[in-house]
Amino acid sequence: MNAFKFGTSLALAIAVSLAVTGCKHKVPPITRFGPNNGLNGSNPGDINGGGTLGNGPAPVGGGEGANFNPDDMAQDRSAFAADTVYFDYDSSTIKGSEQSKLTAIASALQADASAKLLVEGYCDERGTEEYNRSLGERRALASREALANAGISADRVATRSYGEDRAADPGHTPAAWSKNRRDEFVLLHPK
User: What is the pTM of this model?
Assistant: First the structure.
């Protein structure tokens, strides 16, 4: 009987201890979008001191990355809807099968000098919100760099990460996740 009382008392003590202390839940910081976010006071269109991209530090946390505000421009989401670039799980590397889409976008931008571009990076629902925002930004920056390598001035291309928000497919399956790991491209013109 003493063993039963001891076991019951021990279980009760553990339950009370867990109830009182609980578990810590850290609220992730909000990712802000703005013309100078994450660039430590530098010119938002100038990541490495020039107009093209290189191997220098990238903006942290979803900066616009260009010297214009995409929200102040006329947006055409249908122009490059067929050129959505898809990524492998937990990757921001552009697959060889997706390169032709970026080539088509670069050609369209070279033909219209007044056009600018917004690259939106997305992720599937797996991972923390903070991690997915960061991965979405790395994906958008990878497309931006590929466009810069194709001759498009980096100051014509802004980036934005939505992380796991705005899923293309709300399902919880591998097929849905593959549709959500993407970069979408929005053609911009002055209003």
Answer: 0.67
